[in-house]
Specification:
Length: 391
Amino acid sequence: MRYRLLVLTAAVACVALGGCTGKNDKPGTAAEGNTIKIGHYASLSGKEATFGQQVDNGVKLAVDEINNGGGIGGKKIELITEDTQSQTQGAQNAVEKLIGKDEVSALIGEVASGRTMAAAPIAMREKTPMLTPASTREDVTKDENGNVAAYIFRICFIDPFQGTVMAKFAFESLNAKSVAVLKDNANPYSVGLAKAFVEKFKALGGTIVEEQAYEGGQNDFKAQLTAIKGKNPQAIFVPGYYTEVSLIATQARQLGITVPLLGGDGWDSPTLTQGEAKTALEGCYFSNHYSEQDTSAAVQDFIKRYKAKFNGEAPGAMSALGYDAMMIIAKIIKDSGKSDRETIRAGLAALKNYKGVTGNITIDEHHNATKPAVVLQIKDGKFAYHSTVNP
Ligand code: PHE
């Protein structure tokens, strides 16, 4: 709103002064600009800081490679990153600013489904394409009426699939027939993934012996874990984000719970297994978008280039997805010779068989990508490849 007012004020001033060249009067057309502006909004600080930082590094690596190669049609990509501080309001402010003030051609973000969904109506209102690298909740790409959101896209699988992967893994690979669930009620991703898991696990013939919930940001989970322990599950599904999962695992072991904990992509962080959580999570499993141990040249070359740029730091799945997201937008601009918002929107809707670091990406009519998931096992604090599950 603030920026709309600003633009309006500027427009009035233009008329009053009898001029202005009109170079920027069509946001996102960027035809006369010297750069192509792309906005990235990410949790660079706060509770999910490693998510935002890792994607941002992936996006930056892509931008560097594009610009060092001469840019696109002679123009450099100008990346503008805004910190959401791991907060919903922060995501909305960031997107208002990137669209209204910076006039970006397209947006990349967020990782967390809840924040992507909070910012999506702004992108819809302003007809600006938004590509989320990693938000997996089913309705991220839907509008408030449940229809496909015209400007919102993603390049990752969705939680009904991810939930199925882990339910089958628990039931078939671990042979667990009774499982408990501990979800984050303040996190739309966690709620959606828990639902998908429970439905599939029951459909397979398994029993959910206990369902407990917490609110992200809390740090004492003993009451929920005690209730779960009383039901003697063979595994516990914890579809949350890494900050809470580390604490939950540590407290579960303190209470004498020895069964494996299972989770989804929200576990993916280098800090998940820090401190006491390292032993607490040893042997546990989670699903993810990619494995560092994938021996394909695409993955291993990416890891090499990423490590070279970021002091030997290893990329997470989000880094690879961020890299792919930026490269896809660049390819659309290159192939079409245009960088306006409508062209990028149409290019995303039509994307087929893009060979990314995270696999083959085709965006379907629901604006989602259908891709395999990997199951990883925590071994000595590291994420070891266990298996791949195809859709
Ligand atoms: N899929 C999670 C969500 O939608 C975010 C996430 C993606 C976390 C990839 C880690 C890795 O909220």
